[in-house]
Amino acid sequence: MWYLNFSSHEVLNTFRSNLMKKFECLYEGTAKQGNPTLLNEIYTELYITESESGEISNEHEVRQIETQSRRAATEDTPIKCSDIFRALPGQDKPISTVLTKGVAGIGKTVSVQKFILDWAEEKENQDVQLIFPLPFRELNLMKDKTLSLSDLLQVFFPETKEMKIYSERYKVLFIFDGLDECRLSLDFQSDVRLCDVSESASVDVLLTNLIVGNLLPSALIWITSRPAAADLVPSECVHRVTEVRGFNEPQKEEYFRKRISDQRFAKKIIKHLKSSRSLFIMCHIPVFCWISAAVLEKMLSRAESGEIPKTLTQMYTHFLILQTNIKHEKDYEKNVTDEDMILKLGKLAFQQLVKGNVIFYEEDLRECGIDVTEASVYSGLCTQIFREEFGLYQGKVFCFVHLSIQEHLAALYVHLSCTNHNRNVFDQINKLSLRSKVRDLFRQNSSDVSLFALHQRAVNEALQSKNGHLDLFLRFLLGLSLKSHQILLQGLMKQKRSSSDSNEKTVEYIKKKIRTIDSPEKSINLFHCLNELGDHSLEFNPLESVEAPAPGLQTATKTVAFANKNIDLQVKFLLRLPLATREIDI
Known about the structure:
3-stranded antiparallel β-sheet; 22 helices; leucine-rich repeat; NACHT-assoc; NACHT domain-containing protein; repeat; NLR
């Protein structure tokens, strides 16, 4: 155990009180700059399950959500967030290190927030005397520092200066939120061994020794991560893996009833979302529920004449318009035009999406020509996190409210670069030589870049991605080419282009790809792309029959039929199954 002695109970009470003040409010989007909502008033219980560590999924997180939405509840072991360190019936070994995984925006950070708030309010886990929340996005700011664990805690929690290692036992919990955002070099194979909390080392060495158990071996450790980064921590260091699955069906409706004060609007919104399968599936993600509530509440309350969003692209485009209108209503800097700021944020979104980054720092913004003070103008899209109490290690961290907003802005940047500036940004990736840049400039000035050429390149780039990180971006990019979006975005469109011919070519190109590729995830994403393009000629019908694999094999084939008036196309998907007899549902 970590032995501590407090000069008085006032120190511990102050510590609890400070955590309570920090975590009692839920900041959705721009709420931190407006009227924050008390977490306990709006909090909706999330569906969390005990999970096997298993293989890391390489499919896009939206595809994982779609898969989870069809998974039978009987396959999972639900667990309450407050119970993650408690053994289930039949489990004998104590649980001291928990890894919680979940896709972006699914509620991992809110779960952490609720856990801490319940502890600070003395409602849950009172056997734990101290909780130290240390988000990776803030630890990143100290990656070049050398200090001891005691010093590190004093930076984040000045009250710990009054805490002395002495003779009384206290159970301590460290929470490391956002492993996928980590820019530290976590080397679990390193021979550097630390056992003394007063011994100085780099922050990454402190963390690895804490997680491995060399430092404070009796401390509890809670790590959260998106699935793709979950294997950064060796499985032997983790005693339990849990998965935040977001909202189940009843919880989705509960969220909207709590979020929307007028229950008439809440019912209308729920009814509309249920009418679109793809939108209602996305409502597993709490952040998407917030986006939908913001857009639909405004449209329904003002009886706007515009068509209510029915696709993902439409919903996100309306959200963008909503946020830019809020900017003007608040009379922010008017010398920053919508197109200029959106293109800069879009460039940031695209460049960081290609790199796989979801958080950015001031140098990342400057590379895209964004003044840090300008970024706050669009705070609904780019969230600024600034800790004034960070002492010597002050710094600003930026991220988009949700990964899907980053993907939408990236797609909008690529689309506007083509329509407004005659550029195919994919041609500029990895361009190193001056000669190639001059050649591209001459090519751009000599002929138009067609939307079809852009779409064709984007489809190919998405299909080549191993982890599907461009799948949702592709859906957005194709959806933005519809005439309905040109009308919505007319304030950003410098040149009007007829996209009907290009879209017809893109539709045929996608159908051709569906015939030839053998990846189920990529084929189904292309099907969603057709939906975003407004093409419903293919009817997606999973057949009931499954070709059972031979004994011992972990694969089976599933025939999926795509049919229209002129095409009778069957694609066989090779699916990996955890059990040979498991039913397949695409």
